[in-house]
Design goal:
Blueprint lengths: L1 H13 L7 E9 L10 E8 L4 E7 L6 E8 L15 E5 L12 E2 L35 E8 L4 E7 L3 E4 L5 E4 L1 E5 L4 E8 L10 E12 L15 H4 L1 E2 L4 E4 L15 E4 L11 E3 L20 E3 L4
Parallel strand pairs: 6-14
Antiparallel strand pairs: 1-2, 1-13, 2-3, 3-4, 4-5, 7-8, 8-11, 9-10, 11-12, 12-13, 15-16, 17-18
The structure holds 2-acetamido-2-deoxy-beta-D-glucopyranose (NAG) (4 copies).
The site of one 2-acetamido-2-deoxy-beta-D-glucopyranose has 3 residues, from loops.
Keywords: Signal
């Protein structure tokens, strides 16, 4: 009995603390090669599992633009009757990059395909809605490997490895633990995720290192304002480009026979403060071969409460 108790006690001393439910951190994510990581570089993360909100600031890949990704459940500013107020995930993508939307922000209430900088595991929720899950839930069977020097931070940290070994043949990294986690007694310090691709694949192995350059337990009061949204947030936003479906989804060659048609279906409810209307205008985008501007005429479509 005593031996079992001692074993449990020792085991607890040797096991990791892991990520807290609230923290503010500056991350540096890097892949084994520069293009391996979808969101490389230094970025700020505010993670608040207690209040179901997360903010992630990144530098966009296409124009080095600033982007803010934010997840919130039932945000205070949500317009009454809007999907957001009924408990949906709010997703804010706020760039100085008006490619996806012309407004300051957009929100999506449908299931999301793109996941931005959030962990892939967050996608595996009910019906694929993005959900806030614990940040890196550490597997229970990590093995304590003792102290290791962390050159990026110039300090010693305790290393924990997964018992599973991944053989990264493509990238010639070889056999490494599939997951490694480093922490000091105050805070998480680093993670390494490895995932091999099948030998016949043309993809590269995944070998992602995340260093937590700074780490604050809890959400400091000075950081609280980073979760603030415009008071009437949904009112300032338009439905995003994926708020509708096109069927069939293919390219058309315009013919005089009028055999080409498609169905456009709005998926998100109309936004009251935007007048309960969505207006869709079409634009011809001539390709190198076809310039259909002389034989086509596009009508504007208006979705209203009835239509
Ligand atoms: C972030 O990581 C990259 C790749 O390891 C490194 O070159 C760079 O100096 C790091 N930046 C900071 C601020 O630590
Ligand atoms: C992005 O943010 C940084 C820091 O706030 C700022 O210095 C930079 O000008 C911003 N970039 C753009 C494209 O606005
Ligand atoms: C880091 O850990 C190693 C191995 O335990 C030890 O030799 C070294 O003195 C430590 N360095 C610091 C700065 O604590
Ligand atoms: C398409 O071609 C016509 C002449 O064939 C030209 O007048 C028009 O400017 C062209 N439109 C575009 C968008 O290239």
């Amino acid at each position: 009995m005593l031996r079992i108790l001692l074993f449990i006690l020792i085991n607890q001393c040797l096991s990791q603390t892991g990520f807290p439910k609230q923290f503010q951190a500056i991350l540096n994510i890097s892949g084994s090669r520069s293009w391996d990581s979808p969101f490389p570089g230094v970025k700020q993360l505010l993670y608040d599992y207690k209040n179901l909100r997360v903010r992630f600031d990144i530098q966009g890949s296409q124009a080095q633009q600033n982007e803010t990704w934010m997840l919130q459940y039932k945000p205070k500013g949500a317009e009454a009757d809007s999907p957001a107020s009924q408990g949906y995930t709010m997703f804010n993508f706020n760039p100085d990059f008006p490619y996806f939307t012309k407004n300051d922000c957009w929100y999506r209430t449908n299931s999301m395909i793109d996941i931005g900088p959030f962990p892939v595991s967050w996608l595996h929720g009910v019906e694929n809605y993005i959900q806030i899950y614990p940040w890196y839930p550490l597997p229970p069977n990590l093995i304590n490997k003792g102290e290791e020097w962390i050159p990026e931070l110039q300090l010693n940290a305790t290393r924990y490895d997964s018992p599973e070994i991944c053989d990264l043949i493509h990238s010639r990294i070889g056999k490494v633990p599939c997951f490694s986690y480093f922490e000091t007694k105050d805070r998480p310090v680093k993670t390494i995720q490895a995932r091999p691709v099948p030998p016949e694949s043309f993809d590269n192995d995944e070998y992602l290192t995340t260093v937590y350059l700074s780490f604050t337990n809890g959400i400091p009061s000075q950081a609280e304002h980073l979760f603030d949204l415009p008071a009437q947030w949904p009112g300032y936003c338009g439905n995003a480009n994926a708020g509708f479906t096109i069927d069939p989804l293919r390219e058309f060659v315009i013919t005089p026979n009028s055999q080409d048609y498609f169905t456009l279906k709005l998926q998100t409810p109309l936004v009251r403060s935007l007048g309960d209307r969505v207006k869709i205008e079409f634009k011809v985008q001539p390709s190198g071969c076809f310039n259909g501007t002389r034989c086509t005429n596009f009508n504007t479509i208006v979705f209203s409460g009835e239509n």
